[in-house]
């Protein structure tokens, strides 16, 4: 018998989370087991993090090999895993320089600070950051301020200033707002927390053009959409639009905490010696695991699997949606998939997630009205089918009483 349970959480933890009733203790591939030994199909991926599933042999090998060599040196010295990872990230993307940190919020914090400093060096007052409604960029004070959900910053005032929020996918609104005073426009190519809402290709191209016209940096927050999840290594590649700064975390370490800000040599100069930093950024353990994860997620077969399994998942969700009247048509890219609930189920996405958990499926919400799915990109066809079967059972259980009532 374990000495800790879900109740322990309420006794010893700050109440900023409300975790599920079960406690997972072991994972393998796209399956998890709880304290009672019950198995779950994992369509959540630790919120789009375990991009290669649980206990991937190559990640275990990289972590254990590095664990016996060197854990930490700080940034007063550099280290081999960090340099190798930076070499691979710059070889694989538009970027020429990398800043390592420990989370998505920290990667965005670095990006926003770079943009502000760059803008202030360009011209007096060039420090407006434009972002979009429903955007999510993390939970530091700067990132909740730039994010597009006011409730995450309410009560934490005073907030950093000169941040403008506009409707997403509305190019005309951006064209009206952007000016010589704008230092950066930040967007998620696929808004994750905000409801799994992909940018339209026209919007993505138009934002790039407007940034060029007004000499503003284009920041892509790929914390959720990156690392193979969209079916491309980074979603910008699928859009054919190149940002000036890209932030990545979550899947970068496949479950080991790491974040990175990627940029060009020219813009990297802005963060000159002493302007920014992180004790743990570039930690050898994190970078060794991330190097192994990057090698794996870059494989064309795996990226193709993300697309094929994404199509399988969406077809299955749409069929369940039609059968039970619970979901409207799904949306997303690759294995970042959202299923908006139908009008009758507005505000009840969490109820569906809880019902799915009872059937042995772990999935997520993205706000009150959207179910979100972010499984590992190496998930098998059989596991997608099994997860869909369990979701179908959950929807059958949820709709059964109302059918009986109507009979
Ligand atoms: C697009 C995006 N940016 C930033 C973050 C923040 O990342 P972290 O929780 O690692 O700070 C998230 C987390 O959900 C995210 O989805």
């Amino acid at each position: 018998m374990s000495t800790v349970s879900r109740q322990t959480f309420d006794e010893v933890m700050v109440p900023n989370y409300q975790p599920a009733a079960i406690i997972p203790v072991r994972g393998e591939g796209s399956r998890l087991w709880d304290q009672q030994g019950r198995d779950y199909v994992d369509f959540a991926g630790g919120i789009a993090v375990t991009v290669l599933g649980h206990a991937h042999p190559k990640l275990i090998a990289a972590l254990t090999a590095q664990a016996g060599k060197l854990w930490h040196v700080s940034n007063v010295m550099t280290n081999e895993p960090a340099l190798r990872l930076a070499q691979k990230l710059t070889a694989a993307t538009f970027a020429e320089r990398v800043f390592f940190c420990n989370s998505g919020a920290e990667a965005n914090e670095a990006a926003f600070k770079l943009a502000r400093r760059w803008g202030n060096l360009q011209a007096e007052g060039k420090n407006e950051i434009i972002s979009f409604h429903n955007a999510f960029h993390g939970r530091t004070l700067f990132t909740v301020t730039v994010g597009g959900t006011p409730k995450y910053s309410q009560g934490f005032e005073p907030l950093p200033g000169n941040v403008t929020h506009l409707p997403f996918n509305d190019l005309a609104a951006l064209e009206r707002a952007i000016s010589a005073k704008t230092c950066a426009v930040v967007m998620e190519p696929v808004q994750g927390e905000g409801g799994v809402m992909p940018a339209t290709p026209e919007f993505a191209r138009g934002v790039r053009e407007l940034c060029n016209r007004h000499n503003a940096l284009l920041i892509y927050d790929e914390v959720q959409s990156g690392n193979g999840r969209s079916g491309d290594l980074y979603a910008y590649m699928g859009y054919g639009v190149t940002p000036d700064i890209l932030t990545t975390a979550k899947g970068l370490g496949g479950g080991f905490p790491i974040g990175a800000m990627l940029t060009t040599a020219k813009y990297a100069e802005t963060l000159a010696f002493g302007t920014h930093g992180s004790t743990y950024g570039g930690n050898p353990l994190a970078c060794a695991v991330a190097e192994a994860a990057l090698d794996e997620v870059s494989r064309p077969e795996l990226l193709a699997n993300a697309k094929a399994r994404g199509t399988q998942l969406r077809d299955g969700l749409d069929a369940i949606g039609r059968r039970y009247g619970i979901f409207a048509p799904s949306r997303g890219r690759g294995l970042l998939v959202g299923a908006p609930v139908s009008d009758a189920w507005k505000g009840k996405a969490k109820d569906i997630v809880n019902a799915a958990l009872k059937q042995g499926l772990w999935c997520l919400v993205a706000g009150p009205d959207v179910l979100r799915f972010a499984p590992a990109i190496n998930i098998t066809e059989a596991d997608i089918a099994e997860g869909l079967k369990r979701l179908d059972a959950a929807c059958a259980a949820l709709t059964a009483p109302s059918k009986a009532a109507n009979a």
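The domain at 57-297 is CATH 3.40.640.10 (Aspartate Aminotransferase; domain 2). Residues 208 and 216 are 9 Å apart (CA to CA).
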